[in-house]
Amino acid sequence: MKKHHKFSIIKSTSNSTSSPSADSSASRAANFITNRDQSSESLTRLGWRSFFAQQVAGENITELKFAKVMACHRNQFELETSTNTLTLPITNQMADITIGDWLVLNDDNSFRQRLERLSLFSRKAPGSKVQTQLIAANVDTVFIVSSLNKDFNLSRIERYLALANEAEVTPVFVLTKADLCDDTQVYIKQILGIAPLAMVETVNALARESVQPLYAYCALGQTVAVMGSSGVGKSTLINSLIGAQAQLTSNIREDDSKGRHTTTGRTLHQLNSGGLLLDTPGMRELQLADCEQGVADTFEEIISLARQCRFADCHHQSEPGCAVQTALTNGELEYRRLASYQKLLREQALNTASLAQKRAKDRNLTKFHRSIQDGARRLKGK
Ligand SMILES: Nc1nc2c(ncn2[C@@H]2O[C@H](COP(=O)(O)OP(=O)(O)OP(=O)(O)O)[C@@H](O)[C@H]2O)c(=O)[nH]1
Ligand SMILES: [Zn+2]
Question: Which residue ranges traverse the bilayer (predicted)?
Fold first, then answer.
């Protein structure tokens, strides 16, 4: 019930060109103070934690206004506070804000501060420019979606797992198209083979009753994102989880593809179960950059074997005393697993190096501009 109401408010605010501060901010602030219990409850609904409150510990928390970034449009963010939904025009100082971020607003609803994140997904920006692009902040759980058919690919799953580990987000493996699969256990076993303590769910993403067990991960204040390769059923799953609001999602997309509307299709949907479901195309094209820890966490057994190699810089190829090669020979380690580990390490090293290069180039360019400016000043001074 709340949901439909909420979206009608969003529609009206995003169409409005007036400044958010025009809306009686004073009465909202007063409301915030007098209804503290209700407010903190509403904030919890949006994923508020003591981790965020601690960051403003020195201030009078009752006088601060907190807002969560619920959607990113080209020129403005859509925010939700404990009491209402509002829009915030994007300015240069907001370059590092992404969906899921928590903001502190001034009394007039203008931007004051972004709070530190619990987790962050970022990627190397597409195209020739080498830059990181923020995808989503403060995600708790990620559904790593794979389909139970010939597209099922463990090495691809390991890649998504490395990304989840790097972002410090809890992975849940969601195996779709269970309705088309005769033996789901074969696949579940393979997942448990690479992540023994993993949470695995099999679903028919097309059927709302089949996705019910997934709401357990979407409880009050929990934020869930979805990633997986093309065609595995991410959109289908999201639509089934959102249920009645699905139509609205596709309307937004339609507008977007025609380039008429300003939305970038990055939205946090509120689920009836109390959680927030992130729908963002960016999660589909994530690359491994600055992901060394994530890869290491995904291949713990190889890391621990490598510690036993005779040489600290062993490449695990033909070096004597290589514990990794011994494990391969003994059948304790699968060759596919080692190859996947090395491929992901290479991918992340390559992307990280190009990012570092870009950063160095930017630094040099800034230095160069400064030296020109200094030179010009000196000339003028003469
Ligand atoms: N039978 C069956 N079909 C499914 C299931 N999940 C998805 N599909 C079908 O698989 C196709 C791809 O599903 P999508 O939801 O578009 O896949 P996606 O992961 O969003 O794909 P991209 O948008 O390319 O990233 C569609 O035709 C769905 O109807 C499932 O659990 N069972
Ligand atoms: Zn070795």
Answer: none
